[in-house]
Amino acid sequence: MAMRSSFLLSSRLIRPLAIGKKCVRCFHKHASTPSVPSPTPFVPDVETFLTLIGRGMAKHASKLPSWEKLFTLSSTELRDIGIEPTRQRRYLLRKREKFRNGVFGPGGDLEHVVDGTAQLRVVEVPLTPRDTTTDNQASGPSTSSATLSPGMRKVIINLPPDASEYTHDPSKPLKKFAHMKIHRGSMLSGPFLQPIKGTDNCAALLKVQEGMWEDKLGHKVDGGERRRAEVRAKKRSEERRKGTA
Fold first, then answer.
1. What's the whole-number mean pLDDT along residues 141-167?
2. Is there a single domain that holds both residue 114 and residue 165?
3. What are phi and psi of 70, to 5 degrees?
4. Which range, of 77-81, 158-162, 213-217, averages the lowest pLDDT?
């Protein structure tokens, strides 16, 4: 009788564990596949993406044969294809998640790109009724200036790299480009811009470069925070030893 009761007790203890394990397996089996974002004109392929994020990730381009693989492989699968060490995989996972969420570095939101090169230019366009209302509320009627014609405003546009003229189309909304701004009235300002000669910094080219979107690593001083006290104590001890020698 005692043996039977002990058997029933042990079976009751084991049963919930078996059910829990089964539920975990089902959840893992039906986990949703991560979405694959569309390439952009500035980032059309795997090699360009890895070049932009820097940290030597471009050397792994041959291990990721397609855009879909880049955005669907898990950390374990990335390890299996040879992307090492762990911090490189974590960095790649973080950067691809940013891209998936539409968080781009310089150039990621450009539309007119040819062979990794795009042109940005500051031009004048007519004020819209909304702009006029905003100006009146802020500082009275809009007026002209040395760098601005009456009834106009300055905006940044994206053109193909060999274009020299722009025709404004009021039916198409103007787009704001991340990381780019107008400086001192008409000068183009932004990271990695290469000014075009003869434009007084009103136009510039933006080309794909290694590490344009890289998250820079910090520089450890005296061994970093965890070892700073130890390293500095050793330095002081060494200096005292040299002083008494």
1. 80
2. yes
3. -55, -40
4. 213-217
